[in-house]
Amino acid sequence: MKQGVDVKYVNPFLQSGLSIFESMVQMRLGIGTPEVSSLKFENTTFLIQVGVTGEMKGQVLLAMTADHAKEIASRMMGGMEVAELDELSRSALGELSNMIMGNTATLFSNMGILIDITPPLSMLGNRLSLQADVQALKVPLTFENEEFISVYICVAKM
Predict the structure, then answer these.
(1) CATH of the domain at 147
(2) Is 133 contained in some domain?
(3) Which domain holds residue 15?
(4) Which GO BP terms, alphabetically (predicted)?
(5) pLDDT digit string (tens) for 85-129?
(6) Of 46, 123, 124, 143, which is most buried, counting CB atoms within 10 Å of its CB?
(7) Which residues does 21 contact at the CB level (< 8 Å), separation at least 6?
(8) Number of folded domains that form the chain
(9) Is residue 139 one of the residues assigned to a domain?
(10) Which residues of 101-135 are buried (b: 16+ CB within 10 A; e: fewer)?
(11) Could you tell me the pTM of the whole model?
(12) What is the pLDDT, as a whole number, of residue 3?
């Protein structure tokens, strides 16, 4: 049986995500209902995966539709039209994940927990399925009361 995510370690991820989205993407997101989830994505999904090492181990995924990924990239690039998820738009999305996870690492450091992050890995596909050593906690982030992006937190304190 997989270890679950300790809820006291969830807030730094969410706090960082909401803050960075508001400042870098100019979107004020809300938090939906968290749920334990598998890492199986039936529809076409854009994923950004960032590994967590140090005093916590695991991974964090940002999952969204391709259209939402294009909208985020466009907003990050000053409103430039993004017709496809090319190298430039994927780079912008990877940088967004770096900012979120870097800020998360700082929040954990302030709690006396030292973590490092791996470079982001982006994937776009249909019926994607990933594995994690820790049970995933899915937290939907909403925009205008609709799920816009989901954060999958699969980390445990060592």
Answers:
(1) 3.40.1550.10
(2) yes
(3) 7-157
(4) chemotaxis
(5) 999 999 999 999 999 999 999 999 999 999 999 999 999 999 898
(6) 46
(7) 27, 28, 29, 141
(8) 1
(9) yes
(10) bebbbebbeeeebebebeebebeeeeebebebebb
(11) 0.93
(12) 65
